[in-house]
Amino acid sequence: MALPFLPGNSFKSTLGKTKHHKSHHFDYSNDVAMLVGQSKPGIGGEPIRGQVIKPRMSSFPRGESQLPNWVAYDQKVLCFDAFFHEEVIEKREEQFRVRECKIYFYLEDDSIQVIEPRAKNSGIPQGTLIRRHRINKPNSDQFYTVEDFNIDNEINLYSKIFKITNCDNFTYNFLRKLGIKISQPADIPVDPYGEYRKAMDGSMQPLRPYEKHDTLKQFLDHDRHVLRFYCYWDDSDSMFGDPREMVLHYFLADDTMEMREVIPPNSGRDNVAVFLRRGKMPKDVESVQQPGVKTDRTVLNVFGPMGHGGRYILDSLKTGAIHTEFYKDSDLTIGTVINVWGRKFIICDCDEFTKEYYKSKYGIEQFTPITYKQNAGYKLDRQYPPYNGFGSEEDSLCSCMGLLPKPPKRDFIKFMEKDRHGLESNVLRFLAKLNTTKPIDMERRFIISYFLCDDTILVFEPPVRNSGIIGGKFLERGRIKKPGQPLYSTKLSDYFSAQDLYVGSSVDFSGHKFILVDADEYAFRYMEEHPAEFPLANINNIVQKIKNKIGNSMEDVRAFFARNDPHGAGAVNYEQFHSLMQQIDGNLTEQEIMTIARYYSDRSGDNSVDAAKLMVIAQEQLRKRNYEDFAKLLDALQYEDKEKSGQVHAEVIRSVFHAHHVPLPDDMLRAVLTIAPGDGSSNIVYSEFIKLINWKDNPAAPIQYTATQDEGWSGTQPKNQINSVNYMAILKDIFGNID
């Protein structure tokens, strides 16, 4: 029947499709087309009577999982040990070879791979003999399956007969689960030629036996690991000799050593880089031979002229070899004397890495150093000329330390941390009086200001009307020396510090003796917040001191407080409390008594901030920075007011101010928010608040404002004075819970 010609299809492709379609119904036997083949079922897919269809793949028992083989048996391989005989033609030494190999059967697709382990100098290609793929059985269209593999079976793979001798544990267990009876492992026959090669290799001796020392592992393990020892060489017996200090470096990578000399300044010696170059150090210097005596090889006899057909015999046993012992890391310990080319060096100390190395490797725990340096008493201190009175002492001292005088360095970090910023002045002010018996001077009061940024002191006398004394600056701001020091000395003078100023102390400022009788609220609060710097303001130390003095006399103390508290209010006035503290411990200073009284006090008065003055300060701060974007601040706050109530929280205002970079310190902003109009619950009327700080449209009335306010303060204000002290809280902290 003629096949129709279709456009775009060739006759060859059409014929191929027809043949492919035909292969589903016909089979070939002896090149004769048969309607039904041996592997083709009958009508309906049922096998013909007497027909047995052989499986083309391995059949495994199915469990609960119905996964396909390529998923269930992925990366699961059966491994068998096998060998095969290979005939050797036209060779006298051998007639056949026994070649061992590994047979891998992959369970996922019944593929087989044969690999032969590589042998040294075999002379034949080894490795993968058969690549992984499915292999047909000889003279059959069936493939090898798992049922064909067992110990003591022979498998024909491409005309090579492989005898299986053993298998691994996984293969053994897997075949047992399939129900296959496994035979006993067999031995692989001995290869005659392999045994002959081994015997021949054992009897051979090289003509030139070079010794190979493998130092690669030592190099990789200890590269850049260096032991450091401090040595001492006493060369004072030789002419112009003196004791010399050395540093010994031992390189663990190759067991070599080098020595470097520590040359002190002005010793008269040239500063050479290395005293001894890096190399191995022999223990016995006398055993060191001349060049050419010690060689790697020794010639026993020579036949004929050298280099012109002559022969020679080498000493392979090294009967005349000279062995030299070199220093190892085990020979270097503290106190050991080593011989460095005739010079005796004493190992006196080592560094921390060396100590850890000897602890971990040799278990040495004691590393007591040996004193080898010269006595420090021989060192002469540099003498500076005394202060001549011109300039400051530090400036005069710097001019003596070098040919080019340099100005003294100031503590810039301390200056930046303790300088005035915001409402933090970092100035401690004390009220003082003169320690004198003159009636005119006894009534005079002074304000002593201590500046923490540069440790300077300013003494100011507030003017008093009709006193006959003109007030003003009493001592100019500057550092003040403590009394009792020489005026012109080679050492720097000792100056008054912040710890020397406290309530009750007596100070001598340039011949003027003062007694500190009071301090302002900022000074008290600063000293109480820094108890480590001011121990007299440490409440814990003061309470412990009082507790040690009272002891077990709690009833006497309670009786004293009860006599002075007839109403049972649990508090006494400050004068009574002061007299009691003096009776308990007469060594308590006024500062300590005031500290404990302030801690347990009940103060009267209002501690609110002056609103008008604070607004003037805030506007002045914004005016100096030329900040005028108040409209943007108002728009941002209106955006934050989601409920359109006209009020926002104080923290919202702080975040908006920080986002717009308003040049107002955070502590000052907090203080201004406390006096801003609102409902009293941290909600601020932001439109009125913006008007208060708007210096351009609503400028505040100017007031006189000074930096230190020395003129305005003349003692503790009434609102900060201590009226009464809660003695019940003191007794509870000292004696615990009381009834």
TrEMBL record:
Q: Which domain of life is it from?
A: Eukaryota
Record's keyword terms, sorted: Cell projection, Cilium, Cytoplasm, Cytoskeleton, Flagellum, Repeat
Q: Indicate the secretion signal residues.
A: none
Q: Which GO terms describe its molecular function?
A: calcium ion binding
User: According to its UniProt record, where is this protein located?
Assistant: Cytoplasm, Cytoskeleton, Flagellum axoneme
Stored SMART domains: DM10 (SM00676)
| UniProt domain EF-hand: residue ranges | 552-587
Q: Domain DM10: where?
A: 74-179, 223-362, 424-531
GO CC: one term? microtubule
**Function text:** Microtubule inner protein (MIP) part of the dynein-decorated doublet microtubules (DMTs) in cilia axoneme, which is required for motile cilia beating.
Q: Which PANTHER family match?
A: EF-HAND DOMAIN C-TERMINAL CONTAINING PROTEIN, EF-HAND DOMAIN-CONTAINING FAMILY MEMBER C2
What is the protein name given in its UniProt record? EF-hand domain-containing family member C2
Source organism of this protein record: Patella caerulea
**Lineage, opening ranks:** Eukaryota, Metazoa, Spiralia, Lophotrochozoa, Mollusca
